[in-house]
Amino acid sequence: MRARLVAAALVAMLLGATGCGLRDASPDGTDPGAAMPAPLSVIRQGNEITLSGDVPDPAAKRALLDAVITSADDVTVVDRLGVTPGAATPDFAASAPVFEAAAVIGDFALHAAADRVTLAGTAAKPGEAVAVEAAARDAWPHIDIVNELGISAPGTR
Fold first, then answer.
1. Strand 76-83 to strand 48-55: parallel, antiparallel, or no bridges (unpaired)?
2. How many domains does the chain have?
3. Which InterPro entries does UniProt cross-reference here (predicted)?
4. pTM of this prediction?
5. Which of 49, 81, 102, 116 is deepest in the core (most CB within 10 A)?
């Protein structure tokens, strides 16, 4: 019995060494373990803004970082962005006005995909929410903008 186990282990090692072992691939040849682009998020919690998800190239990453960094004073930006060729995100080259308008919203969040941008958070005044949505529509005129920004009730701020 022991000899069979040793023989089986040797065969598995030989097959693995020659590339004939088990493979993590689907029948169509794609690697299911390959990283899929993560949805992109910009989340502000007080004075910290965290960027996460994937962008298609370093230029897109720089455009988003610049837009966020220049949008508000006294914030810490946490960069958790990855660069994944083929990641589908909106063009952030003209997005600075969105983050500038949202600078007054302490719990602002933006979630983006190729064809949709969702805005969330709690504005103190209706005009703040309207300004953020208008800036988003200007920045991305051909993308679906979903406005989930709420307005805080009087006396809650």
1. parallel
2. 1
3. ArfA_BON-like
4. 0.74
5. 102
Adjacency order of strands within the sheet including 109-112: 76-83, 48-55, 40-45, 109-112, 116-123, 144-151
Pairwise CA distance, residues 53 & 33, whole Å: 17
Helix or strand or coil: residue 153? coil
In terms of residue numbers, what domain contains 126?
40-151
Average pLDDT of the chain?
Answer: 82
116-123 and 109-112 strand pairing = antiparallel
Tell me, yes or no, whether 105 lies in a domain.
yes
Could you tell me which of 124, 76, 57, 128 has the C-alpha nearest to residue 98? 128
Cβ–Cβ < 8 Å for 82, 55: yes
Is residue 23 in some structural domain?
Answer: no
Helix H or strand E segment including 105: none
- pLDDT band of residue 38 (cuts 50, 70, 90) is confident
pLDDT tens for 143-152 read 999 999 999 9
Tell me, yes or no, whether 32 lies in a domain.
no
Q: For the domain that residue 79 is a member of, what is the CATH number?
A: 3.40.1520.20
Q: Give the list of residues 6+ apart from residue 99 with CB closer than 8 angstroms, or none.
A: 42, 67, 68, 70, 71, 72
